[in-house]
Amino acid sequence: MHPRKLIRDSVHFAFSLSVVRIALMARGLLAARMLGPLGYGAWNAMQLMMDYGVFAAAGTQQGLDQAVPAKIVGGDATALSRLKRAGFANIMLTTSLFITGCLVWASVGSSRLLGVWGLPGIVLALACVLAVNIAYYGLSLLRSHGDMNTVSTWFVIQGLIGAGLGLALIPRLGEWGLLWGWVAGCLVSLVFVLVRGRHQVPLTFAFSPDNLQLIRIGLPMFVFTSSMLVMRSLDRLIILRYLGTQDLGFYSLSVMVLTFLLYLPDSVGYVVYPQLLRRYGEGGEDASVIRDRVEQLLQAMAILVPLLSGLAYLWTREIVALLLPKFLPGVAAVRILGFGAVGLALGTTASIVLMTVGRRMALVPAAIFATALGATLDILAVRLGFGITGVAWATLVTYALNGGVLLAMASSGVGHTASRTLVFVMRSLIPLFLSIVIAFVLDRYLPGAHAQELAQRAWRVLFGSVAFLLLYSFAVAPLARGVGLKQLVLEFNLPILSPLLKRLGFGSES
User: Fold this and answer.
1) Predicted pLDDT of residue 472
2) Is the separation of the CB atoms in 327 and 32 below 8 Å?
3) Residue in 491, 105, 34, 484 with CA at minimum distance from that of residue 268
4) Phi, psi (5° rounding) for residue 398?
5) pTM value?
6) Which of 56, 396, 397, 407 could crosslink 340 through cysteines, CB 3.0-4.6 Å?
7) What span, in angstroms and rounded, lies between the C-alpha atoms of 394 and 407?
């Protein structure tokens, strides 16, 4: 692919994701206000089941991502068609088994999910799972053929229809309106992909050695991504299981906060991965050629994300009090978990480095360890009676430790010595500690914490934010030297941030 087209597609995709994220965050905010904690908790419980539907692919998705481009380059049309049809057969078979298992569980068992939604709601959610898994199959093939425009548009169609229609139906149908809106978004976007991909996306089956080969190729990445999904949703699953739907509703505001805070690292990760792969390949697969780039990238994430997390900590309570007063019992948990975005951002970026240097298999035990640790700490917090705030602290510790472990592995992967790796990890985690301390101290000791006037509370938050920016900037200044934060944002051409800096006059020479 031509470099200019790669950059254009990357920016288009990142912009599309930003549009979808804004729409879904708006849906979450408005739905929470309209439904209240109990109804919003019920919707988040259903979302968990739909999220876990991606497990049904059992590695085929990741196998297609890796195997199809090689077949396209090889020019064997027959082998390519057989591989695609084998992938479709796998997707349909494994998704059907997942759906059957869920229906059997719902029919013979009892759970909070079944009690709230009943069997019809679960059937609708499983229809979304099937539609999304077929769409992912098509998107994988279209991405391999270079059609990123269709991929980007799918996200926009699904997100905007699912969010907009869902909100429009809430006054009449309550939480069921969100579900019907999401069903419509999934089905319309699926039809769009199948129509656009009618020449590249076969919908017929093939059974050959390719079926097992796809699973074998994709299994390591499937285990890693699945474990990461479990780790990122365990807290909500445990709250639903042990504390109930209403507490899940209080806690689910954290999903919106994390989505917002992870916008920057996710966008950077999407753009930087192909750049690292290209540099690594051009350098003869010598990790030293990307070492400086990796250090700059990880140090930038280590400084920028704690900055955003600290500001979110200071603002969250007032925003929730103003817009979602019924959710105030969950504010402490949401504010604490906002700092978890740092661990997630560092871990995700470090995993990209490990994938670049060919250490994918090392990600699997790390992800499994983080999942087991998260489950243990979350359940312990519940058993000790600390409620959702305790779960938030346990999850923050899990995310931070997982990020530190992956940072150490990435540092070693680019050739750092053991001592250099230790220094690198500590230097990356220090800003998180500083951000937590500064935000906590300012929030506790600034006057006006119990002011009743909205204007007084607003001035307190504004003053606290300015004080936080000054104190945090001063504290991390020695760590920021040589990182090149401004140039990093400009170089990755991130939507919103890069144009803003350019309008302010930065980067005009480039």
Assistant:
1) 92
2) yes
3) 491
4) -60, -50
5) 0.77
6) 396
7) 20
